[in-house]
Amino acid sequence: MFKKKLIVTIPLVISSLGVTWAQADPEADTLKIVTRTDFAFLELLGVSYQREIPISRRNVLIFNPKAYYDFYYGNGVFGQRFGHSLSLGLTVGSRHYYRLRPRARQTNTGNYVGMDFGIKSSPLIQRNVYFTPVLFLNPYWGLRRNLGRRTVFELGLGLTFKKDLGEYARENMYLSPSIQLGFGWRL
Prior knowledge:
Number of domains: 1
Strand content: over 45%
Low-confidence stretches: 12-26
Radius of gyration: 18 Å
CATH class: Mainly Beta
CATH topology: Porin
CATH architecture: Beta Barrel
Number of helices: 2
């Protein structure tokens, strides 16, 4: 019961923080309305394609297919010290941008709070590690900065709630910190 309340309460609190951090001047703090923005991202441990679709002056929807590379080092389940895997995932979510004066002058620059929901597949390629498909919910705070005309840096920090979907994973739920770090190129 406590886990269910925690899963509902934390994302609502994090999402509402964006409203309290927003600037007082609403006209200076708005997104440039475009039909969509597409990026290819090289992330800390993977690659992704990201599409942002504006739904209002400060909010966007995110569509994000990914390829994940995971590694493990330690006392392995299979008696090995090192394992790795490659899997695919799909994330959809939303972002609320705030303090957007720089974004109004430079496209795709701003701070945001967001919420992602996604699924990660079983490994396509693996060695000494195996996991089942996972559903996840990820509330986070982030920033995006221009590094050039078509290049951006993106950092996101938050929490990830995970639920295993495997046959033997009926009650497995996890809470872990989340770091999103990547360099993107506008397509």
